[in-house]
Amino acid sequence: MSRGRYKDYCNHASHERASLTTHTRVSLQTLVAALSLFSFSISISSAQITESGNLSDSPVQIRVTSPQQPEPIPATVFGSFLEPIGHSTYGGLWSDVIENPSFEEGLWSAGNVTNMLRTRPELQRSSQLGVPLPWEPLDFMQGARFLPIRGDAANSSQSLLIMAPPDKETGVRQTVYLPVHRELEYNGSIWIKHLRGHNDVKVSLRQHDRTDHILVSATLDAPAKEWSKYTFHLKLQSGELARLEPADLTISVSDDTRIQIDEVSLVPADNIDGMDPDMIAMARELHSSLIRFGGNFTSAYDWHDGIGPQDKRVSKLNISWGIPEYNTFGTGEFLRFCELVHAQPQFALNLGTGTPEQAAEWVKYINQHWANHRGGLLWELGNELWGDFQVGYPGIERIATLTHNVSDAIKRIDPTARLIATGGDEDWFHNWNAAQLTNPPGTFDLLSTHFVVGDRVGLSHPSSNFRTMATLALPWGLAQRMRAIKDQIQQSVHKDRVNIAFTEWLMASGEHGSPRFDNMGGAVFAGGFLNMVLRNSDIVPVSDMTGIIEFGGIWSKRSQVYGAPAYWVLREYASAHPSYLLTVDNSSPTYSIAKGVDRLPEISGVPYFDVVATLSDDKTKLLLLCVNRHLTNATNASFDLSSFGHLKGTAKITTVASDSIVDMNDEENPDRITPSISHVPTQSTFTYRFSPSSVTIVEISLSR
């Protein structure tokens, strides 16, 4: 995700414009029947929503048939996306609980420092005493007993000198949240340079803001006058620290002792190669076939920073987001993550500050360290290079040449590499993509597009219902734009050789009153988006939801791991393995939007009840992927599956729903919204009632 897109999210902004096409086919008989019904339009929010169809309790008629050769659906439409934003890696997937482990300055932008001090004003006093953010003195009353030392460090640029007064204990502490609900043992390390006094250095966990209440401690014998690494082990007693309760990790010395400290680490003993096991488990169960590593930060990322011994990797400012990049989670760690969750890696390369040669070197390194070392991975040639927020953006004048040069460099290293060139977004793609399409055939295999959109609408004084319905219409409105992008490709020398990769998609409203990535409305949006991609997977074979960690994916707050509602939608879709697209005749009432979300303000014919039908990968199951966009009305749907012969048995019904679209999961209630599963008898024709604002998967066995 770009800085510009994230800023749009923060300011509730968006900019998408499109209409619709769909593989849903309406038979002549259904059309005549629909026309014979009482059709009407009603005015809502100054006549900006019009509804068509019979909104009575009569069942929506759904007829599913199989074309002679069903369109295959690639598993790569269920990809996801990882970028260091917020606490997606550090404080999320990466299990080390320490922030700023090497006591550096300048790891946060001014805006993020301001926010940090607004939330925790006591850190301002810490900084005045020479303690780098977000560390604090053990005892503020002791005054200035600390000094940052630049140019003498075990890691990066700076260490911290601690000077204990006679007969007193002096040290630094940091507030940490530990996953005590699953693990009581913690392993740590610290680099120390002894200057004078006793050799003892105490490392402890104490009750937060209760420096006299030590929960557990370890004493290190640290006499070395040169930088040396020391390890320790801390084991809490059951019940000493409650779930979600903070503790203070403290490093201290006594009695006129002076030491320099650097590069502190504390990880739960159950970590998996440095990663959070709860995160790994939930990511594996997501069944994402593809995970994208990249985004805006890669335009200034030197991959060499993220290889080699972890405690020697240099901490830097992630300039894209104004947060620390410790580089302890680098290329090898990401490849290990993909291996653990059974996904293929997809890397976004640095086309901002990097060179074609550096990109090719990274490709070579990854091929040497991934799977069978044969290459053939998916590489993205930059991220949102059309934006002036992108570090080192090339501009439209240079994009084609840059893409060609990087492509050539990569193909010399790996002729089997599959390449995604940076494409434009749906509402303004034409000129940018035209420049990219001047490249010769074979330069790239896919053109990227993104859909990170807020809920700003064109209607003055919109009601919350109008804003919500305009938002939920967006995925339906994207289909025509996808076809328009493909049509432009078809008119170029690339023709059938290039398709579209949706490498980021996210509903990023800034208000909790609207559908957004972390609430139930975001889950309904996700279901609608996945249905759109499934219908268009012949031209959109790659799709990456933002993101596998945070946004629509897996969250960790105060060491409690949980999934956003959209996570459960993507998980249930992907785990059902929809693999062959079927034909759907759908009589659902529809609505149309005018003056809607500013980038797709006009969208017509949006079905309240949206259905995609597929066969599973082994063709033994019929899958009905159903999204009910109606906010208040349950939908009765009558299914005709007679073309599949005489069916009789039990269907598995998996539903993601809640009482309100603004309901969400959080660390206090991590399971408020999770899938509910039921089983109902079915046959070749059956009727089922779908909850309002819900996403439902119906699995029916085709065995006779």
Number of strands: 36
Based on Cα principal axes, name the global outline. globular
Number of helices: 12
CATH topology heading of the largest domain: TIM Barrel
Helix content: 10-25%
Binned strand content = 25-35%
Question: How many distinct folded domains?
Answer: 3
How is the largest sheet built, in terms of strand order? 4-15-18-19-20-21-22-23
Task: Name the structural class.
Answer: alpha+beta
Question: Major beta sheet, specifics?
Answer: 8 strands, parallel, barrel
Q: Say which CATH homologous superfamily of the largest domain is assigned.
A: Glycosidases
Cα-atom Rg, whole angstroms? 28 Å
What ranges have pLDDT less than 50 throughout 5 or more consecutive residues?
Answer: 6-46
Instruction: Give the integer mean of the pLDDT values.
Output: 92
Intertermini distance? 47 Å
What's the multimeric state?
Answer: single chain
Identify the CATH class of the largest domain: Alpha Beta
By CATH, the architecture of the largest domain is named Alpha-Beta Barrel
Keywords:
Jelly Rolls, Immunoglobulin-like, TIM Barrel, 704 residues, alpha+beta, 3 domains, 36 strands, eight-stranded parallel beta barrel
Explain how this protein is built.
With 704 residues, the chain is an alpha+beta fold. It has three domains: 23-73 and 583-701, Sandwich (Immunoglobulin-like); 75-94 and 287-325 and 344-575, Glycosidases (TIM Barrel, Alpha-Beta Barrel), CATH 3.20.20; 110-268, Galactose-binding domain-like (Jelly Rolls, Sandwich). It has an eight-stranded parallel barrel with strand order 4-15-18-19-20-21-22-23, surrounded by five helices. It has a seven-stranded antiparallel beta sheet with strand order 3-26-30-31-36-33-34, covered by helices on one side. It has a five-stranded antiparallel beta sheet with strand order 5-8-13-10-11. Helix 10 (464-490) links the parallel strand 21 (446-453) and strand 22 (499-507). The longest helix is centred in the C-terminal third of the chain and has 27 residues, at 464-490. The radius of gyration is 28 Å and the shape is globular. Mean pLDDT is 92; it is low at 6-46.
